[in-house]
Structure formats: C-alpha cells, structure tokens
Structure prediction request, 171 residues.
Amino acid sequence: MAIREPRTLDLRDELRRGGEPLPQILEEVANLAPGQSLRLLTIFEPLPLYAVLGKKGFLHEATRRGEGDWEVLFTPGAASAEKLPSKRLSLATDDGAWPPAGTLLDNRGLQPPEPMIRILDALEHLQPGEVLEAINEREPQFLYPQLEERGAGIRVDRRADGVHLLVRRGL
Prediction:
C-alpha cells in the first residue's frame, strides 16, 4: 500500500475570526483515505481535539512553529483507539433539580482555548454535585467531550448575550 501525503487543513484565519472549526475538522477526517494523515495548522495547541480524534483511532504529534503558530499531525493508529466507557452529557432541561450555581465565569471576550481551560479548572475545584455557570460567546464544541470524560453534567442555554452553560461536577 502506498503511503499518501497528509491532507492539510489551515485553521488559523478561522480561529482568529473566532470560528469553531470542529465540524470542518470532522468532515476532513471523514474524507481521509484509509491510512491517510491529517495535518492541522492552528494558532494554539488543540488539546481537546486529541481526545476527540483519539477516540477515532488517531495518534497526534504537535509542533510549535512560533507564537500563535502550531502544526499538529494526526495519524491513524490502533494504539489510540482505546475505548473509554461511554457517558452521556445531560443536555436536557428536565433531568432533575440542580442546586444553584456557586461560581460564575464570564468568558466573553476570551479567545479559544481560554474559556475551556477556565471551565475545566473551575470544575476541578467544585465538590461533587456542585454547579458552575459559564457564559461563552460561542458554542464550546471542544469542551463537551472533555466534560463527558470527567462525568460532568451540562445544561446549555443559547441566548442573545452568549451561550450560557451550567456544568455540574459528577457525584
């Protein structure tokens, strides 16, 4: 079998505009030839993407090229296809009463991945069952798999002033 050149996806301009490129990344992954790699050019190291594509069987190798300039190569490999127990995020509003949020994070005005890092850090400081509220300018698509892995529940309310998240630490 001939080794194919990696497919390259340059996300730097999209990310600088505040876009959420996850759907585009997943589409590129779906269109890869068997055994083909994907090279992403980004403005930060896409840490949450490692878990997302790792579940699809991809290994990663990241190289920082300069300030705000990263190259990440995702290569198919069985070693990263480890299956984790599946946990569902609670996106419904009727799954029982939650206590009021004890922490509020206003992430508007921050560039990715800072909102996600702030939310995950705050989550680690919550007691089991405690809730935090976060307000983001955009849908935090990379955050959802991270919350799933940590067994956290989430409620999402999309409003004119941003995406409001309630995140509850697992019991």
